[in-house]
Specification:
Helix content: 25-40%
Number of helices: 12
Low-confidence stretches: 1-32
Structural class: alpha/beta
Radius of gyration: 20 Å
Order of helices and strands: EEHEHEHEHEHHEHEHEEEHHEEHH
Distance between the termini: 49 Å
Shape: globular
Strand content: 5-15%
Mean pLDDT: 85
Number of strands: 13
Amino acid sequence: MRIDHSGRETFSGDPGVEINNLSPYITGTFVMGGGVNRIEKIKRLASVFWHYKTRSTVLPYMPIRLWVETTNRCNLACTMCPNAFDSVSVRGLMDLGLFESIVDQIEGRANDINLSHRGEPLFHPGLADMVRMASRRRLATRIHTNATMLDRERGEQLLDARPDLVSFSFDGYDKETYERVRIGGIFEETLENIRVFLEVKRRKGLSKPYTIMQIIEPRDADESYRRNLSLFGQRMRSEGLDKFYVKKPHNWAGNAPGTTHHTPGYLVCTFLYYSMTILWNGLVCPCPQDWYGSMILGDLNEDRIEDVWNGAPIRGLRRRAIDRDLDDLLCSNCDRVFRNTFWGVPTENIKAFFGETLAGYDNLRRFIRK
């Protein structure tokens, strides 16, 4: 299904670290990653929460988190990822002029920006420049990489650009478990890339980026797997990693292998209230689960972000999500809208999201290491 600019529907071919008490770290007004004042971040978050709870369809703020796809090219064929069998998506790199237009439009209005989506961001030769462009506009920058291309030279370039967060997508704890999932990756080489990156960061005396190793737990994981994974995580923490995070797999809104898991509850999609996903060619999707761009909301080569954010297509989506009218939408197959919640907010990522927003990465690191 595609939602055109008039609103008509047409059919087309973190175990994460527990954060129990952040109150000592959320007082004051000092600056957070990307140069954004913490009080301003809290105000934005409060506005999102209010309009989400009151089920607004027109929002008086801009998206506070963006996924900006620097490229959809990838060198791996991971077993849980649609990239492994995506033979229809046109591959490309985001134009730097388009990227600069995006960050210009959200300067002073968003908290952070993810410089990755469906592909490996290190394929983009201008990635470090993108980090600098965003940082100059007081946007915290986040990069999710498989680290296979993170050689020393690229690592130095990235560290010099000073992103706020770098997350390593690394599934497994040894050669057999890693290469069974990360098809095309070589365990020893990828792990060495991460270790060198952490060592160079330490040698340079840098406080950022905040570093995370993210593991997607296999559906057939047993106690032996979890025990070995925990030991591996402890070793990586001892080598300078800030956080070792194990997450459950999701089904990419039905675009990935595996059955959809529905909990008894229903969650009005939070992506529609706080985020925007922009593909490498400027097309806008409602969320990062829309792998094939089946629900296009606008085109930033022609439209402005603020017009897309409250345009007829996304207002219609918010209304349908509120009414649980998901038939013929990609959302009907998405396990992200059937998650456990606390006070109407998904519990799965709530600690990380609020921890990053309220405490900031530097304070979060100090709190975790106590």
